[in-house]
């Protein structure tokens, strides 16, 4: 079967995934609608297609992962997006999270350190017709993306040893940075930093997660 076919079976599996995410505490209907409408099986290597709607992370190229749907929903919900929000994602990976953000109405800037992942995400987002309001970059996202700052929200989809100050500086006042932070490379707490004004920030600490490491100048070396 063509990998890019979205069948009734896939749609049914997505409906069940949506119900599972609701039962785990995701309440943002815009986020749930986005996950419900996006064929996650397109973003996985073909051998994992039959598992695409399980709530699990899976390997992608370059030794990286596509995040678990619950994690994608959890981080997206914490961003408190509004239609037209300008969002920077660090860690494009498969492009799935970027697509969810776009379907939530955001203007997405996404940066990835592996060229091969950025290229395959770009090709897939084109297949899905999600190229408007989508801007992909290759580079070290721990430095943010100054050329298009400031952002309403920044989402980091890899585990950081600490919160890079550069990212906070690229937020608009009132903006949120959602980032998994942990002193060990394999376990993090989800943290939401709100830039209250140019001097003050508010920090909220949420649940435990496990991400691949954020590697770069302001991340793991
Ligand atoms: N958001 C992705 C998705 O939906 O498939 C999942 C990303 S995976 C968990 C984390 C990604 O962050 C990997 O693709 C990794 O290469 C990338 N990454 C790690 N450090 C980075 C950095 N400094 N700048 C940009 N990307 C980085």
Q: Secondary-structure map with pairings?
A:
Blueprint: H1 8-23, H2 29-37, E1 58-59, E2 65-66, H3 69-78, E3 86-90, H4 96-103, E4 107-112, H5 115-127, E5 134-138, E6 151-156, H6 165-169, E7 171-184, E8 187-195, E9 201-209
Helix pairs in contact: 1-2, 2-4
Can you tell me about this structure?
By secondary structure, the protein is an alpha/beta fold. It has a single domain, classed as 3-Layer(aba) Sandwich (Rossmann fold), CATH 3.40.50.150. Helix content is 28%, strand content 26%. It has helices at residues 8-23, 29-37, 69-78, 96-103, 115-127, 165-169; strands spanning 58-59, 65-66, 86-90, 107-112, 134-138, 151-156, 171-184, 187-195, 201-209. The strands form two sheets. A seven-stranded mixed β-sheet has the order 5-4-3-6-7-8-9. Strands 1-2 form a two-stranded antiparallel ribbon. A hairpin with a 5-residue loop joins strand 8 (187-195) and strand 9 (201-209). Helix 2 packs across helix 4 (96-103). The radius of gyration is 16 Å and the shape is globular. The termini are far apart. The mean pLDDT is 96. Bound molecules: S-adenosylmethionine. The site of S-adenosylmethionine has 26 residues, from strand 2, helix 4 and strand 4. S-adenosylmethionine binds next to strand 2, helix 4 and strand 4.
């Amino acid at each position: 079967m063509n990998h890019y076919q979205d069948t009734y079976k896939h749609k049914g599996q997505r409906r069940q995934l949506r119900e599972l995410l609701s039962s785990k505490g995701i309440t943002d209907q815009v986020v749930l609608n986005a996950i419900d409408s996006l064929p996650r099986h397109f973003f996985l290597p073909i051998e994992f297609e039959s598992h695409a709607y399980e709530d699990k992370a899976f390997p992608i190229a370059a030794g990286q992962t596509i995040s678990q749907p619950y994690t994608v929903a959890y981080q997206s919900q914490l961003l408190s997006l509004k239609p037209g929000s300008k969002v920077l994602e660090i860690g494009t990976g498969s492009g799935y999270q970027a697509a969810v953000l776009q379907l939530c109405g955001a203007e997405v800037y996404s940066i990835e350190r592996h060229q091969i992942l950025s290229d395959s995400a770009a090709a897939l987002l084109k297949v899905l017709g999600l190229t408007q309001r989508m801007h992909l970059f290759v580079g070290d996202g721990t430095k943010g993306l100054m050329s298009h700052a400031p952002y309403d929200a920044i989402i980091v989809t890899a585990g950081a040893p600490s919160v890079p100050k550069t990212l906070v500086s690229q937020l608009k006042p009132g903006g949120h940075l959602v980032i998994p932070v942990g002193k060990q490379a394999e376990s993090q707490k989800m943290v939401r930093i709100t830039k209250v004004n140019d001097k003050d920030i508010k920090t909220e600490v949420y649940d435990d997660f496990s991400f691949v490491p954020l590697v770069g100048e302001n991340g793991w070396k």
